[in-house]
Amino acid sequence: MRSRPQRPFVTPLCLLAAFAGAARAAESPPEMTFDQALQQLKTYDYGQDDRPLRAIELQAVRQATGAAARADVAARLATVLAAPDVAHAAKVFVCQQLAVFGTEAQVPLLVKMLDDPHTAEIARWTLDAIPGEAASAALRGALSRLDRSALIGAVNSLGLRRDGPAVAPLTTLLTHADSGVAAAAAEALGKIATADAAAGLLAATVAPQAETRLHNARLQCAERRAAEGDAATAEKIYEAILASDSPPARRVGALVGLANVAPEKAVPLVLRTLAEEDALLRATAMQLAGRLPGSAMTKALVERLPQLELAGQVLLLDALARRGDRAAANAVAERMDSEHDSVRTAAVTALACLGDAAHLRRLVEFSASGGGTVSRAAQSALTKIVGADIEPELLKMADDQDAATRTAVFRVLASRRATSATPLLLRAAAEPDETVRRAAFDALAAVAGGESYGRLVDLLVAAPTPGDAQAAERAVLETGSRLPAVPLRIAPVLAALGTAPNQAKPSLIRVLGGIGGAEALAGVRDQLDPADSAVRDAAVRTLAGWADVAAAPDLLKLAQTADEITHRVLAMRGYLRLAGEIKDTAARLKMLEDIRPVATDPQAKRLLLATLAEAADPGALQVAAEFLGDAAVQTEAEVAVLKLARALVRIDPPGVRAAMRAVIDTSKDEQVAANAAALDEEAMNAPPPDAAQKALQQDRARSDAIKAALAKRAPRGYRLACYLDCGPDRADGANDGPLLRLVGGTTYYWTGSEQQADVHFGSVFYDGGRVIFEAAGLNPKKAYQIGFTWWDFDHATRAQSVSLATSKGEHEISVLAKTKLPSGANKQPPEEKTLSVPAEVYRDGTLRITFRNEAQPNAVVSELWLWESEAEQ
Prior knowledge:
44 helices
């Protein structure tokens, strides 16, 4: 027997008859009145014209605008059920409508249908959808006379309704000869979860086939009793399960539950479970051990620690860390002597929470031991360990005689941002040991304050090796970034640059490049002429990497006049990089045109073309194309132009077409001309470059215009509450009313779709499985409909279904069966549909809307909106 959300009696044909016409009905006026349609429904059967069904569905939604009107609609629908010789198809449809509009007045009629095997299930489902005691009493009364499948259905319904008066008859059914009925009764009692239901479940004995479902029902009942404040009953259930000979997998849930409701009683059980052979039980006990309170628990865990195997020790060390009780610190520290890395790593990690200054030396030793897991864990623990005496003790260790220990401590001080270590580190940065110096500079980059900046510049000038210089540069830049003003960073560097030996100047130049600004640029420019090649090279490379366009004139000059070809290449690349960063098109093109005169001979032209080819800018393509027809560099020009065209074909189609025609006109290579022709065709067919971006940008004016048009054709008695233009809009609504938002899906735009339909149909949310939305802030006393559009623009294969569910998905209804989408590939336009929302799925004020992929390649939605009734029902 399936559970209620799956609607076992609702076949695809029924769904199509009941729901698929909703949108068509919304698009064209019904051809008959409500009463005319009801009269025709009495003779309706599968395979016949379903227009009466569509008319009824639309008219029912429109007319049921208040409680009295809703009752009237339900009463008129019920006349069809009462009529003689009505086909099963008509009864199914009426019951589906009564599930939305039915009242207690229809309960007696539905009760009679419970006795007919052909209508029992649909009657039960409809009763389940009608709130109130009358429907519950009818379901309870039917328990004594229904057969197996119908009986299970009624039991399920009573459980979902959490019907307290049903506990007694359901408890009786726990002894039913049919194990399926007994299991369903247990599950229903677990959902009802009163104290009487708990007593019945505890006393129950069922056939082996139903034991798992009985166990799950007991756990569910215990959870609900605890949530409702009855911890004593929950505790009783958990203890009963733990005392039984149930399999370990069943006892796990009871152990966790008992730890939640009665932690003190769970302690001995958790300790005993730590020795269990079953891995699942033992792991669960380890997790619980980390949060159960009390020093006794800590003591017991410490005593158990050496008795466990390796995996158990690792888990228990983690549990002790999570407890945070420092009484366990020494026992944990002893595990650092284990011969197994996994245990040592777990112990070191735990000391981050439990350790103190007494454990620092061992942790530093591990940190200095290499790059393994234990070393990394020690470094992390040293960073996290807390205590007033931690930093003073680390500073003492930083003066240790052993270089490995000192460098390890330096790393720890840096990771802890220990600014008090700065004087010690400045001294270490001038020591003879290169390893110590490098580690000191690395730490100073993290901890030194602005007051140490001048001293660091001096240390940079005095750096004895390139490696020291590199580490000192970073320390100077990082420390300088903590100064309040740029001039304070530049002045000491410029002063040092004026007196420093040539060996130190490249580092100072690179520091100026890292600082940036006009004053720093002038300082670098002054170093372009010195005779020392290393100084000159550093200045050129620094300019080539300059952060802003202020360096462009210097780079252009270098590209023209530099003696070394390497410097000319660097200057060109730097210049073109800066040009590519200019947002203004005219200014960017002007920069690119300015570099054209640099190429005065074949070698310079080849160099410029090679550099332009990497720029991927429309202006670069235009400049490169000017070399086509130059016999000395025709081949290089073709290579550069084709490479740029491939990168720009969708960004600048007109520019690519012009360049490709120039290639075709000048090239003597047939393959090159063919490649250019292909790119020319691709550019000709390319969409406007920003079509997709514009379509996916939120356009409030466009959405508001669509909403205004929709509002004018709202169903009678309804208003437009929310609207999403899928793609640009991810949420819409008001704080004090309904809010519609995307939960799962990705934005996409079908390029070219705007040639067949308005642009908003081409922007979609899509997903390979499901596109999910949530409507929140709904009024359970009001009625709702959803409207949407969908379109299979680029295929003729998509098919989708639509379902509505409660916020957590525990109750789901299919409202539109698998339906083929209109195909844009076959020139079909997008399609609009409207579906009614059953009240049972938004009783808590939240509704989940799911579009499911039922074919290939994915699910898509173009628009979604929500209609809300103006009056409460």
